[in-house]
From TrEMBL:
It comes from Anaerococcus lactolyticus S7-1-13. Residues 310-359 form the PucR C-terminal helix-turn-helix domain. This is Sugar diacid recognition. PANTHER family: CARBOHYDRATE DIACID REGULATOR. Residues 4-131 form the Putative sugar diacid recognition domain. Pfam families: Diacid_rec, HTH_30. Signal peptide: none annotated. Transmembrane segments: none annotated. InterPro entries: CdaR-like_regulators (IPR051448), Diacid_rec (IPR008599), PucR_C-HTH_dom (IPR025736), PucR_C-HTH_sf (IPR042070).
Length: 365
Protein backbone atom coordinates (compact mmCIF):
# COMPACT_ATOMS: atom_id res chain seq x y z
CA UNK A 1 0.00 0.00 0.00
CA UNK A 2 1.55 3.30 -1.09
CA UNK A 3 0.67 6.15 1.25
CA UNK A 4 -0.16 9.41 -0.50
CA UNK A 5 0.68 12.78 1.02
CA UNK A 6 -2.96 13.73 1.59
CA UNK A 7 -3.65 10.63 3.66
CA UNK A 8 -0.35 10.95 5.53
CA UNK A 9 -1.10 14.57 6.45
CA UNK A 10 -4.58 13.62 7.62
CA UNK A 11 -3.04 10.95 9.86
CA UNK A 12 -0.40 13.17 11.49
CA UNK A 13 -2.91 15.94 12.13
CA UNK A 14 -5.32 13.46 13.66
CA UNK A 15 -2.60 12.04 15.92
CA UNK A 16 -1.42 15.53 16.89
CA UNK A 17 -4.71 15.91 18.74
CA UNK A 18 -3.69 12.96 20.94
CA UNK A 19 -0.30 14.28 22.09
CA UNK A 20 1.15 17.77 22.17
CA UNK A 21 4.22 16.95 20.07
CA UNK A 22 5.07 17.34 16.38
CA UNK A 23 4.47 14.18 14.35
CA UNK A 24 6.03 13.20 11.00
CA UNK A 25 5.19 10.57 8.43
CA UNK A 26 8.17 9.39 6.39
CA UNK A 27 7.90 7.24 3.25
CA UNK A 28 10.11 4.27 2.38
CA UNK A 29 12.57 6.55 0.58
CA UNK A 30 13.21 8.43 3.82
CA UNK A 31 11.33 11.57 2.72
CA UNK A 32 9.05 13.33 5.19
CA UNK A 33 5.81 13.48 3.19
CA UNK A 34 3.63 14.84 6.00
CA UNK A 35 4.28 16.68 9.25
CA UNK A 36 2.66 18.94 11.80
CA UNK A 37 5.92 20.92 11.47
CA UNK A 38 5.27 22.00 7.87
CA UNK A 39 8.82 23.27 7.38
CA UNK A 40 10.14 19.69 7.44
CA UNK A 41 7.93 18.36 4.64
CA UNK A 42 9.87 17.03 1.60
CA UNK A 43 13.15 16.82 3.54
CA UNK A 44 15.29 13.68 3.99
CA UNK A 45 15.18 11.84 7.33
CA UNK A 46 18.13 9.43 7.62
CA UNK A 47 16.93 8.11 10.96
CA UNK A 48 13.76 6.87 9.27
CA UNK A 49 15.84 5.09 6.60
CA UNK A 50 17.64 3.19 9.36
CA UNK A 51 14.28 2.41 10.96
CA UNK A 52 13.01 0.95 7.67
CA UNK A 53 16.21 -0.98 6.99
CA UNK A 54 16.34 -2.57 10.45
CA UNK A 55 12.58 -2.86 10.87
CA UNK A 56 12.73 -1.62 14.43
CA UNK A 57 12.15 1.48 16.55
CA UNK A 58 14.89 4.11 16.38
CA UNK A 59 15.33 6.50 19.29
CA UNK A 60 17.22 9.71 18.48
CA UNK A 61 18.92 11.50 21.36
CA UNK A 62 20.08 14.66 19.60
CA UNK A 63 19.24 16.71 16.51
CA UNK A 64 22.62 16.02 14.86
CA UNK A 65 22.59 12.24 15.28
CA UNK A 66 21.07 11.67 11.79
CA UNK A 67 20.85 14.01 8.80
CA UNK A 68 17.47 15.73 8.69
CA UNK A 69 16.38 14.23 12.00
CA UNK A 70 15.40 15.74 15.32
CA UNK A 71 15.50 14.08 18.70
CA UNK A 72 12.53 11.85 19.32
CA UNK A 73 11.31 8.37 18.46
CA UNK A 74 10.62 6.77 15.06
CA UNK A 75 8.67 3.56 14.54
CA UNK A 76 8.09 1.40 11.44
CA UNK A 77 4.46 1.35 10.28
CA UNK A 78 3.23 -1.95 8.87
CA UNK A 79 0.31 -2.82 6.65
CA UNK A 80 -0.38 -6.47 5.82
CA UNK A 81 3.00 -7.37 7.38
CA UNK A 82 4.98 -4.98 5.17
CA UNK A 83 6.62 -1.72 6.23
CA UNK A 84 4.88 1.12 4.39
CA UNK A 85 6.54 4.04 6.16
CA UNK A 86 7.69 5.46 9.47
CA UNK A 87 5.81 7.48 12.06
CA UNK A 88 8.02 9.84 14.04
CA UNK A 89 7.38 11.87 17.20
CA UNK A 90 9.67 14.84 17.85
CA UNK A 91 10.62 15.79 21.40
CA UNK A 92 12.53 14.77 24.50
CA UNK A 93 12.84 10.98 24.65
CA UNK A 94 11.62 10.71 28.22
CA UNK A 95 8.40 12.43 27.10
CA UNK A 96 7.72 10.92 23.66
CA UNK A 97 8.90 7.31 24.06
CA UNK A 98 5.84 6.40 26.13
CA UNK A 99 3.60 7.44 23.22
CA UNK A 100 5.48 5.46 20.56
CA UNK A 101 3.57 2.16 20.51
CA UNK A 102 0.20 3.90 20.88
CA UNK A 103 0.86 6.26 17.96
CA UNK A 104 2.16 3.38 15.82
CA UNK A 105 -0.96 1.28 16.48
CA UNK A 106 -3.27 4.22 15.85
CA UNK A 107 -1.50 4.92 12.54
CA UNK A 108 -1.90 1.30 11.43
CA UNK A 109 -5.59 1.35 12.39
CA UNK A 110 -6.14 4.53 10.35
CA UNK A 111 -4.36 2.97 7.36
CA UNK A 112 -6.50 -0.16 7.60
CA UNK A 113 -9.70 1.92 7.76
CA UNK A 114 -8.61 3.90 4.70
CA UNK A 115 -7.86 0.68 2.81
CA UNK A 116 -11.31 -0.70 3.67
CA UNK A 117 -12.96 2.52 2.49
CA UNK A 118 -10.95 2.55 -0.74
CA UNK A 119 -11.88 -1.04 -1.51
CA UNK A 120 -15.52 -0.39 -0.67
CA UNK A 121 -15.51 2.59 -3.03
CA UNK A 122 -13.85 0.54 -5.78
CA UNK A 123 -16.44 -2.22 -5.34
CA UNK A 124 -19.27 0.32 -5.55
CA UNK A 125 -17.84 1.83 -8.74
CA UNK A 126 -17.33 -1.61 -10.29
CA UNK A 127 -20.94 -2.61 -9.64
CA UNK A 128 -22.13 0.75 -10.95
CA UNK A 129 -20.26 0.06 -14.20
CA UNK A 130 -21.83 -3.41 -14.45
CA UNK A 131 -25.37 -2.09 -13.87
CA UNK A 132 -24.88 0.80 -16.29
CA UNK A 133 -23.58 -1.55 -18.98
CA UNK A 134 -26.49 -3.94 -18.47
CA UNK A 135 -29.18 -1.25 -18.65
CA UNK A 136 -27.63 0.48 -21.67
CA UNK A 137 -26.97 -2.76 -23.58
CA UNK A 138 -23.20 -2.19 -23.52
CA UNK A 139 -22.06 -5.51 -22.09
CA UNK A 140 -19.28 -5.60 -24.67
CA UNK A 141 -17.53 -2.84 -22.70
CA UNK A 142 -17.11 -5.09 -19.65
CA UNK A 143 -13.93 -7.08 -19.13
CA UNK A 144 -15.75 -9.50 -16.87
CA UNK A 145 -19.40 -10.47 -16.37
CA UNK A 146 -20.40 -12.65 -13.39
CA UNK A 147 -21.94 -15.91 -14.61
CA UNK A 148 -25.05 -15.64 -12.45
CA UNK A 149 -26.01 -12.36 -14.15
CA UNK A 150 -26.65 -14.27 -17.36
CA UNK A 151 -28.15 -17.43 -15.92
CA UNK A 152 -30.34 -16.32 -12.98
CA UNK A 153 -33.88 -14.93 -13.18
CA UNK A 154 -33.83 -11.15 -12.77
CA UNK A 155 -36.03 -8.28 -11.60
CA UNK A 156 -35.11 -4.60 -11.78
CA UNK A 157 -36.28 -2.16 -9.08
CA UNK A 158 -36.05 1.62 -9.51
CA UNK A 159 -36.67 4.58 -7.20
CA UNK A 160 -36.27 8.26 -8.07
CA UNK A 161 -34.00 10.29 -5.80
CA UNK A 162 -32.54 13.76 -5.56
CA UNK A 163 -28.94 12.74 -6.28
CA UNK A 164 -27.41 16.05 -5.17
CA UNK A 165 -29.20 15.85 -1.82
CA UNK A 166 -27.43 12.58 -0.94
CA UNK A 167 -23.71 12.79 -0.22
CA UNK A 168 -21.38 9.92 -1.12
CA UNK A 169 -21.38 8.56 2.43
CA UNK A 170 -25.19 8.33 2.51
CA UNK A 171 -25.33 6.64 -0.89
CA UNK A 172 -22.63 4.18 0.18
CA UNK A 173 -24.46 3.39 3.43
CA UNK A 174 -27.73 2.74 1.60
CA UNK A 175 -25.95 0.43 -0.85
CA UNK A 176 -24.27 -1.47 1.98
CA UNK A 177 -27.56 -1.75 3.86
CA UNK A 178 -29.27 -3.15 0.78
CA UNK A 179 -26.48 -5.67 0.20
CA UNK A 180 -26.26 -6.81 3.81
CA UNK A 181 -30.00 -7.52 4.05
CA UNK A 182 -30.37 -9.80 1.03
CA UNK A 183 -28.87 -13.10 -0.05
CA UNK A 184 -25.17 -12.63 -0.82
CA UNK A 185 -24.31 -12.17 -4.52
CA UNK A 186 -27.99 -12.04 -5.41
CA UNK A 187 -28.33 -8.33 -6.15
CA UNK A 188 -26.52 -5.38 -7.71
CA UNK A 189 -27.19 -1.95 -6.23
CA UNK A 190 -26.15 1.47 -7.49
CA UNK A 191 -27.14 5.09 -8.09
CA UNK A 192 -27.38 6.36 -11.68
CA UNK A 193 -28.21 10.03 -12.18
CA UNK A 194 -31.48 10.56 -10.29
CA UNK A 195 -32.29 6.87 -9.83
CA UNK A 196 -31.61 4.30 -7.12
CA UNK A 197 -31.40 0.94 -8.91
CA UNK A 198 -31.44 -2.62 -7.61
CA UNK A 199 -31.05 -5.61 -9.93
CA UNK A 200 -32.27 -8.74 -8.14
CA UNK A 201 -31.06 -12.16 -9.23
CA UNK A 202 -34.21 -13.54 -7.70
CA UNK A 203 -37.76 -14.07 -8.96
CA UNK A 204 -39.44 -14.40 -5.56
CA UNK A 205 -41.86 -11.48 -5.31
CA UNK A 206 -42.19 -11.76 -1.52
CA UNK A 207 -38.42 -11.62 -0.99
CA UNK A 208 -38.08 -8.56 -3.22
CA UNK A 209 -41.07 -6.77 -1.72
CA UNK A 210 -39.90 -7.32 1.87
CA UNK A 211 -36.36 -6.22 1.05
CA UNK A 212 -37.50 -3.02 -0.67
CA UNK A 213 -39.78 -2.11 2.23
CA UNK A 214 -36.87 -2.65 4.62
CA UNK A 215 -34.75 -0.35 2.45
CA UNK A 216 -37.53 2.26 2.28
CA UNK A 217 -37.84 2.23 6.07
CA UNK A 218 -34.07 2.60 6.54
CA UNK A 219 -33.85 5.51 4.10
CA UNK A 220 -36.74 7.30 5.78
CA UNK A 221 -35.65 6.64 9.37
CA UNK A 222 -31.92 7.29 9.04
CA UNK A 223 -31.67 9.83 6.22
CA UNK A 224 -35.14 11.41 5.95
CA UNK A 225 -35.33 10.20 2.34
CA UNK A 226 -38.62 8.74 1.11
CA UNK A 227 -38.47 6.17 -1.69
CA UNK A 228 -41.14 4.77 -4.03
CA UNK A 229 -40.00 1.71 -5.97
CA UNK A 230 -41.25 0.26 -9.23
CA UNK A 231 -40.31 -3.33 -10.06
CA UNK A 232 -40.13 -4.95 -13.50
CA UNK A 233 -41.48 -8.34 -14.49
CA UNK A 234 -39.12 -11.29 -14.09
CA UNK A 235 -36.85 -11.98 -17.06
CA UNK A 236 -33.85 -14.17 -17.93
CA UNK A 237 -31.99 -12.97 -21.01
CA UNK A 238 -29.65 -10.20 -19.93
CA UNK A 239 -29.83 -8.67 -23.41
CA UNK A 240 -33.49 -7.81 -22.66
CA UNK A 241 -32.60 -5.71 -19.61
CA UNK A 242 -33.32 -2.37 -21.26
CA UNK A 243 -36.95 -3.36 -21.92
CA UNK A 244 -37.49 -4.46 -18.34
CA UNK A 245 -35.72 -1.37 -17.01
CA UNK A 246 -38.39 0.67 -18.82
CA UNK A 247 -41.05 -1.43 -17.06
CA UNK A 248 -39.48 -0.61 -13.69
CA UNK A 249 -39.44 3.12 -14.49
CA UNK A 250 -43.13 3.05 -15.45
CA UNK A 251 -44.00 1.10 -12.29
CA UNK A 252 -42.08 3.63 -10.21
CA UNK A 253 -43.99 6.49 -11.80
CA UNK A 254 -47.28 4.83 -10.84
CA UNK A 255 -46.02 4.12 -7.31
CA UNK A 256 -45.00 7.76 -6.98
CA UNK A 257 -48.48 8.87 -8.00
CA UNK A 258 -50.18 6.53 -5.52
CA UNK A 259 -47.92 7.83 -2.74
CA UNK A 260 -46.87 6.32 0.55
CA UNK A 261 -49.72 3.84 0.68
CA UNK A 262 -48.12 2.01 -2.28
CA UNK A 263 -44.33 2.34 -1.82
CA UNK A 264 -43.62 -0.72 -4.00
CA UNK A 265 -45.49 -1.54 -7.22
CA UNK A 266 -44.72 -4.48 -9.49
CA UNK A 267 -45.24 -4.04 -13.22
CA UNK A 268 -47.31 -7.20 -13.48
CA UNK A 269 -49.78 -5.79 -10.90
CA UNK A 270 -50.42 -2.57 -12.81
CA UNK A 271 -53.81 -2.02 -14.46
CA UNK A 272 -54.85 1.58 -15.10
CA UNK A 273 -51.23 2.55 -14.45
CA UNK A 274 -50.18 0.72 -17.64
CA UNK A 275 -52.20 3.20 -19.67
CA UNK A 276 -51.36 6.38 -17.79
CA UNK A 277 -47.61 5.80 -17.51
CA UNK A 278 -47.42 5.26 -21.26
CA UNK A 279 -48.58 8.84 -21.89
CA UNK A 280 -46.12 11.65 -22.45
CA UNK A 281 -45.54 13.83 -19.37
CA UNK A 282 -45.80 16.99 -21.47
CA UNK A 283 -49.20 15.96 -22.82
CA UNK A 284 -50.43 15.12 -19.33
CA UNK A 285 -49.25 18.46 -18.01
CA UNK A 286 -51.01 20.35 -20.80
CA UNK A 287 -54.19 18.40 -20.12
CA UNK A 288 -53.98 19.15 -16.38
CA UNK A 289 -53.36 22.84 -17.06
CA UNK A 290 -56.33 23.07 -19.41
CA UNK A 291 -58.73 21.59 -16.85
CA UNK A 292 -57.35 23.17 -13.64
CA UNK A 293 -55.94 26.50 -14.86
CA UNK A 294 -58.54 28.64 -13.05
CA UNK A 295 -57.75 27.21 -9.60
CA UNK A 296 -55.37 29.37 -7.56
CA UNK A 297 -51.96 27.69 -7.17
CA UNK A 298 -52.16 28.03 -3.39
CA UNK A 299 -55.43 26.06 -3.36
CA UNK A 300 -54.52 23.28 -5.80
CA UNK A 301 -53.17 20.97 -3.11
CA UNK A 302 -56.35 21.32 -1.04
CA UNK A 303 -58.55 20.61 -4.04
CA UNK A 304 -56.47 17.60 -5.01
CA UNK A 305 -56.76 16.19 -1.48
CA UNK A 306 -60.51 16.82 -1.46
CA UNK A 307 -60.97 15.20 -4.86
CA UNK A 308 -58.92 12.10 -4.00
CA UNK A 309 -60.88 11.63 -0.77
CA UNK A 310 -64.10 11.99 -2.75
CA UNK A 311 -63.02 9.01 -4.83
CA UNK A 312 -61.67 7.08 -1.84
CA UNK A 313 -65.00 7.31 0.02
CA UNK A 314 -67.24 6.94 -3.05
CA UNK A 315 -68.65 10.43 -2.63
CA UNK A 316 -69.53 10.10 1.09
CA UNK A 317 -69.56 13.68 2.37
CA UNK A 318 -69.63 12.52 6.00
CA UNK A 319 -66.51 10.35 5.59
CA UNK A 320 -64.64 13.15 3.81
CA UNK A 321 -65.64 15.67 6.48
CA UNK A 322 -64.43 13.34 9.25
CA UNK A 323 -61.01 12.82 7.65
CA UNK A 324 -60.50 16.51 6.83
CA UNK A 325 -61.90 17.68 10.20
CA UNK A 326 -64.40 19.95 8.45
CA UNK A 327 -68.14 20.49 8.55
CA UNK A 328 -70.15 18.67 5.87
CA UNK A 329 -71.43 22.00 4.55
CA UNK A 330 -67.83 23.13 3.99
CA UNK A 331 -67.14 19.99 1.95
CA UNK A 332 -70.27 20.59 -0.14
CA UNK A 333 -69.26 24.21 -0.68
CA UNK A 334 -65.77 23.22 -1.89
CA UNK A 335 -67.11 20.57 -4.26
CA UNK A 336 -69.47 23.16 -5.74
CA UNK A 337 -66.60 25.63 -6.05
CA UNK A 338 -64.47 22.98 -7.80
CA UNK A 339 -67.25 22.60 -10.36
CA UNK A 340 -67.53 26.38 -10.70
CA UNK A 341 -63.78 26.80 -11.30
CA UNK A 342 -63.33 23.90 -13.74
CA UNK A 343 -66.74 23.42 -15.31
CA UNK A 344 -66.69 19.76 -14.26
CA UNK A 345 -68.91 18.27 -11.56
CA UNK A 346 -67.16 15.45 -9.63
CA UNK A 347 -70.61 13.99 -8.81
CA UNK A 348 -71.07 13.23 -12.51
CA UNK A 349 -69.19 10.08 -13.59
CA UNK A 350 -67.90 11.47 -16.90
CA UNK A 351 -66.83 14.74 -15.27
CA UNK A 352 -65.19 12.80 -12.44
CA UNK A 353 -62.99 10.99 -14.98
CA UNK A 354 -61.96 14.30 -16.57
CA UNK A 355 -60.93 15.67 -13.16
CA UNK A 356 -59.21 12.43 -12.15
CA UNK A 357 -56.94 12.50 -15.20
CA UNK A 358 -56.22 16.19 -14.57
CA UNK A 359 -55.15 15.62 -10.97
CA UNK A 360 -53.17 12.47 -11.84
CA UNK A 361 -50.08 14.24 -13.16
CA UNK A 362 -50.26 17.18 -10.75
CA UNK A 363 -47.02 17.13 -8.69
CA UNK A 364 -47.84 19.39 -5.75
CA UNK A 365 -47.25 17.15 -2.70
Amino acid sequence: MKINTELAQKIVESLRDTIEQDINFIDNDGIIIASTDHGRINSLHEGALTCIKEGTTIAINSDDEYTGAKKGVNLPVKFQKEIVGVIGISGELEIVEKYGDIIKKMTEILLREEWINENASADIENKKLIVESILNSKLYELDFLPKNLESDAKNIAVAKINYDALDFSTRKNLIRFAESNFTKNKLYVTFLQNKFIVIYLDSNKTNINEHLKLLINQASKSYNVYLNFGVSSTYHRISNSKTFYTQAIRSQKWSEYKGRKSPVIFYKDMELGLLLTSLDDKDLYEYSYKVLKDIDLNELKEYKELFLLYGKYNGSISAIADEMFMHKNTIQYRLNKLESLTGYNPRNFNDYLVLWFAFFNLKID
